[in-house]
């Protein structure tokens, strides 16, 4: 069977990381877990060291880096030919690795299904972008690449503050990736818990969209399929307001 490397970047995830690790250690072998910790100052290192000492397939690294940089570093440490990305505050479904593995023979890019949990007040249909028939906004909280594809397109662009996964998906599809969407490759992701976190997320989403605009300009044909029921909801309006602030901030910053 094909081996899979689950790659995680974390920063101060003591509230969530144990739940993620519990969900991973029981996954179907062969696989390994590679965690890149951007110098957490809470109990995250202690928890992860416990798992690394107990399980030989868990590898723990401390390195100050961005999300994209951490994922690239984790990929460089992997021993297997497939890279599965998941976030530190997520929980892998029971057969996540097994169901991803079933697609490795025919596909080099697989996007799994993400199910939101937590404070549903701040849960919304994401702003979806499509290129070449593939939703490039499929997040790296549940995404698998073959290592050969990942390396051929240069991995994550570390210049991106956020939206680094969208950028990489775009480059993968442009390169001719064979992609699949797997509804049984499930990861449970957490919504933002507070209004402050929600608006911060919206701001950085807008910032990332501007970075995409600056990198691709009019050469990239993207289409947005809007869920109309969200159009006039207060949450949608607030998200767009803070997203626009992030977009404008990035635009002004790049002109300096």
Distance between the amino and carboxyl termini:
52 Å
Number of DSSP-assigned strands? 11
Radius of gyration based on Cα positions: 18 Å
User: Which structural class best describes the helix and strand composition?
Assistant: alpha/beta
Strand content: 15-25%
The parts where pLDDT drops under 50 for at least 5 residues are none
Arithmetic mean of pLDDT: 90
Shape: globular
Instruction: Compute the number of helices.
Output: 8
Order of helices and strands: EHEHEHEEHEEEEHHEHEH
Largest sheet: 8 strands, mixed
With strands numbered from the N-terminus, the spatial order across the biggest sheet is 3-2-1-4-9-6-10-5
Instruction: Please bin the fraction of helical residues.
Output: 25-40%
Architecture overview:
The structure is a single chain. The strands form two sheets. The chain has an eight-stranded mixed beta sheet with strand order 3-2-1-4-9-6-10-5. A three-stranded antiparallel beta sheet has the order 8-7-11. The protein is built from eight helices and eleven strands. The longest helix is centred in the C-terminal third of the chain and has 22 residues. It is globular and about 45 Å long. With about 260 residues, it is of the alpha/beta class. A hairpin with a 2-residue loop joins strand 7 and strand 8.
Briefly, what is this?
By secondary structure, this protein is α/β, with parallel strands linked by helices. It is built from eight helices and eleven strands.
